[in-house]
Specification:
- By secondary structure, this protein is of the alpha+beta class.
- Helices cover about 30% and strands about 30% of the residues.
- The protein has a four-stranded mixed beta sheet with strand order 1-4-3-2.
- A hairpin with a 2-residue loop joins β2 and β3.
- The longest helix has 13 residues.
């Protein structure tokens, strides 16, 4: 699979973070799961809308990693691909 195809699949998963079954799964670490419903919703919206991909955080142009700041806390998201499954993990930066 080429980088463009991987990027397209990763973007589809991220852009459909609230209904990911068609594109993959979303996993939240314990630190993220502890957020209130309102804060979790806002954080996931920021992951969904993330667009600051650059050479430093996306050297292969696959859109598989990013950092989101929310309420003075750093969060990471990471997309891993396994045969027949794509998993988007949202975590506190300190949980990485």
């Amino acid at each position: 699979m080429n980088n463009k195809t991987i990027r397209e699949f990763n973007d589809k998963l991220r852009h459909n973070i609230f209904s990911p079954n068609k594109y993959g799964q979303v996993v939240l670490t314990s630190g993220v799961s502890d957020l209130s419903q309102e804060d979790l919703f806002e954080l996931l919206c920021r992951v969904r809308d993330f667009n600051d991909f650059n050479e430093g955080n996306d050297p292969y142009q696959e859109h598989d990693f990013g950092r989101v700041d929310f309420k003075d806390v750093k969060y990471f998201f990471k997309i891993d691909y396994y045969p027949y499954n794509r998993i988007l993990t949202v975590m506190l930066a300190e949980e990485y």
